[in-house]
């Protein structure tokens, strides 16, 4: 039991940054961004290739995050190109297409960066070893969970601060009422691109940490990221509530942990790992339709 | 803070879907000079181009031909969001002017930032909160005590009052009102219109107000413009307008609009 809990917490926390990224695109920017399926392995690929090439894991992680930032910018620019001038906030077609294009292109980019489909990171020092030697802790078991939790909380507070700055308010309003914030003199094309960059930087951070934690980067590791991210966001919101952005950021991190806990329990119950994606998709469908079903039942 | 500026429109034309069977000449060449501080009411039937005129001034789309001058500046080629720094706007839909899931104070902070570049300083500061409280208290809706409430918890009238405040709080050079009381119930509409008149007079704002309501157009503002088929067909100053009644206005409309009258009368009534 303790092993399950510990591994679920570790997984939930390394993926929490990705879930925060998905939260920013889906909820704050109202931009269903599919780039994440490509930017998660991008972060992993850049980090793994650099560590394998003898660079410091810290630099490798930072570069991975930077790569994710750029991937988000690319999606933002593609969206500008595809929406062809007329800005209609509820037109999701160009948003989805921009993400799909970047995601597809990133598959090739990731393969090129790695030079093959898989880079093992066993026996080489990764970021956790570095942190461990600084803190004079062994980065195993509960120590790793604590360090990851601290990192998640730091990132949470940075996001919280950012979203409440002048720029952050404009970013929030871009997703909430684009017509209004344009009429207030904000270039929403710019805020959207920056927001997408930040979100994908977070997703790439997750990818980088996942690779270093599991000991390899794989070109296929991003498949289904968007659905897993959504599952984390929705479960967090449903279970822990949505009062105010500051609180939701915590909810979403907790949602990521609950989601990984569910996966760990499912595996323990004997569900094949290959069935997990279908299970996750069903979970998201159920969670998304809950409010509608509840309303129907109440009326009947 | 900027000062009220004169507006000049020179030969503005806007053709939508040019060269297609759906081609529409929305603005058929409009020349209009509005001195600084003037409050102009614009009336006309559906499709007469009055809302298109406001959007042309705001820069929502690029013009087919013609120029827009705001103060001394030619803003014809300026992007909408750049122009928006000095132009305040209120739309017909009360939901259009505020960000629903953000708080009252966050919305107002954004409106206070209009003329500045938004940076990484805190958005809602205690200094800004003090300004917000003073400004909100004049609405008489008790919103000054609910700064942290989400805007989607407010009524349509409260949201429109906030939109109006947000459009004028940074003292724009120009205020554009697009049927901003049309979606409200009569009592609330009257309150919002009174508030509009107060804010406009007090800040001496150059204002263009589009309305369907002839009575409003006669009662408020110091100039009245009637549009038809993308043109200005009637232009009355404060003195001429003071002597008019709604009936006279319908007659005048009949004279200029000709055979289109029968249909339009129903719309205007």
Q: What name is given to the CATH topology of chain A?
A: ABC transporter involved in vitamin B12 uptake, BtuC
Structural class of chain B: alpha/beta
Tell me the number of helical segments of chain A per DSSP (H or I, 4 or more residues long): 12
Structural class of chain A: mainly alpha
Series of secondary-structure elements of chain A, N-terminal to C-terminal: HHHHEHHHHHEHHH
Strand content of chain A: under 5%
User: In total, how many beta strands of chain A?
Assistant: 2
- Average of per-residue pLDDT values of chain A: 91
Overview in brief:
The complex is a heterodimer of chains A (about 300) and B (about 270). Chain A is mainly alpha-helical and about 300 residues long.
Explain the overall architecture.
The complex is a heterodimer of chains A (300) and B (269). Chain A contains twelve helices and two strands. With 300 residues, chain A is mainly alpha-helical. In chain A, helix 1 packs parallel to helix 6. The longest helix of chain A has 27 residues, at 2-28. Chain A starts with a helix and ends with a helix. Chain B has 269 residues and is α/β, with parallel strands linked by helices. Chain B contains ten helices and ten strands. In chain B, the strands form two sheets. Chain B has a six-stranded mixed beta sheet, sandwiched between helices. A four-stranded antiparallel beta sheet of chain B has the order 2-1-4-5, covered by helices on one side. In chain B, helix 3 runs parallel beside helix 5 (156-168). The longest helix of chain B is centred in the last third of the chain and has 18 residues, at 186-203. The chains are: A mainly alpha (300), B alpha/beta (269). Chains A and B meet through helix 7 and helix 8 of A and helix 2 and helix 3 of B.
